[in-house]
């Protein structure tokens, strides 16, 4: 893992296991779940692709080339890991009565088309419900009994909803680049968005790290702002209470942390003190985000897994399956179980 990940505290006592993740691409399988089906008609074609060790942008360009359209006419809901086998949907704008490409004839050693279907609207960034993961850890060693307890705790309580190392670039360099941008270095538009996201993620992780160290990342404290599961609606701040703790434990709500921007955080009391202290510790990032006209938003502190299952395989291997909502990271789940996971 990068230093961004290894410096973060653990919620469940530290990883009890060591092993090899991604011994092959097939050991890290991700299936994107949009939450809706293409409607069968319209100017866009939803092309579902399975890729093996391929970059999402590169696949998008190859699809555009095959269809004879500009790469800008291809969109997708989210980036998918290159070092994996992943299934995801690409949206291609093919208006008019032009002949439909023979998608199944497009065969490449790094990807193939699973299916293609027309849809009335373009697929927008972020327009997915969840991702299903099937991961295999090879040559596992460590304390299996404690691993079972950690897995049970993860299933019951979730994990801290940190931004994963992918958000921070190679060796965590995006935060340093964001600082350089805020200090006056000129960057291209697409790079600017990436660096703003890294700066916000750094501040959020700093707040959440404090809550993990305090032991209240998944409990109510004075002044917390809350997010409803599913709808992601925000309410609060409200005084801490056993009722709020019970709702957190049930998965109904989660306390939130700030995605930094102009204005003051919505939180109050102790929660606000933690958040403003983190912003003060990273004052250049906080000021840069305000200057960039980012607005204050909130993100859940608790990441809950759906349908967590595990199986010990022959040869000291461990298979994990789970679903995560859009915007969360499998790596922050694995780090609670596996030391030096990457």
Question: What would the keywords be for this entry?
Answer:
342 residues, alpha+beta, Pseudouridine synthase, ten-stranded mixed β-sheet, four-stranded antiparallel β-sheet, 16 strands, 27% strand
Task: Write a brief structural summary.
This protein is of the alpha+beta class and 342 residues long.
Describe this structure in words.
It is a single chain. By secondary structure, this protein is of the alpha+beta class. Among the domains are: 36-119, Pseudouridine synthase (2-Layer Sandwich); 160-303, 2-Layer Sandwich (Pseudouridine synthase), CATH 3.30.2340. Helix content is 30%, strand content 27%. The chain has helices at 3-6, 56-67, 144-157, 173-182, 189-214, 242-250, 269-281, 283-291, 330-334, and strands at residues 17-21, 28-33, 44-52, 74-76, 85-93, 107-108, 111-119, 130-142, 159-160, 226-228, 234-235, 253-259, 297-300, 302-303, 306-313, 317-325. The strands form 3 sheets. Strands 1, 2, 3, 4, 5, 6, 7, 8, 15 and 16 form a 10-stranded mixed β-sheet that branches. A hairpin with a 3-residue loop joins β15 and β16 (317-325). The longest helix has 26 residues, at 189-214. The chain starts with a helix and ends in an 8-residue tail after the last helix. 39% of the residues are buried.
